[in-house]
Amino acid sequence: MPEAFGITEELVTGLTTGNAPFVEEARSHGESFIEQRYELYSPANHEAWRSLCERIRPRWERYANTHFLHGIETLHLPYDRIPRLSDINRFLHPLTGFQARPVSGYVPAFVFFDRLRQRQFPTTITIRPADKLDYLPEPDIFHDVAGHVPMHTEKAFADALVRFGDCAHTAVKIAAGIPDDEERVRRLTSILTGMSRFFWFTVEFGLMRSPRGVCAYGSGLLSSFGELQHSIESPQVGRYPLQIEWVINQSFEIDHYQPLLFIVDSFEHLFDLVDELERWMREGSLNNVAPGPPEIDERDLRSFLDATT
Ligand SMILES: [Fe+2]
299 CA distance to ligand 1 centroid (A)? Predict the structure, then answer.
């Protein structure tokens, strides 16, 4: 677009997933934590947010847990434009101490969990293209802010996230106490596999019992128009009460609707389970989880090993 019109390249591309020069530049400099340059969102970015909200809202009313519905009201989540994280944080912080912190993309696993421990949620600021509302190969602001953040208004859920952060520190302590390099990597890989499976089947894809039947609290479900309904209604989904020994040994794949989901009774129940996970970790019960996906990313493993020094 010609300079004469006063429109920079960024205002045209905006902050679109896979095409956000401002974010890509930060990433190329190794900056994980950045500003949300709100003025860079394009009209198409806001339109994508508006369409996503409009489409999914009736399904939230029907399938989301009540804490989530209460959370979007408490945060005054806007439906007609992308939210400013500073506005969200103004309502969120007094409730649980949590804050959404803008990031340029991938954050290594240890850093991610350590931020949770500090009640900070690394938050993607880009948004999927307006013509690909169902296409979500990586998190975007709709997944992170509309899917995750409303639950951070609830004390027991927020405390459970902090407890995940404690688990990461426990994993580091365990690894630091293993003198043999090969065994340290083997055991840490097993612990991280168990931990990511647990996180996946709760925070990302969890179901919860409620007086009106089973409902969703996992952000992967709450940010997916198709899978939200599928997770509750489809006879092809197996739904079982969450058992730690099952979840830490259960592999999953990310490229299709989940065929197996686990149910907790409440967020207090979830907190107790994460508490128990940390105890299991200390007792060595995550040292030999079943092999299989997810494969632990080298950079995630490295982030834990670096924290041992
Ligand atoms: Fe997520």
Answer: 18
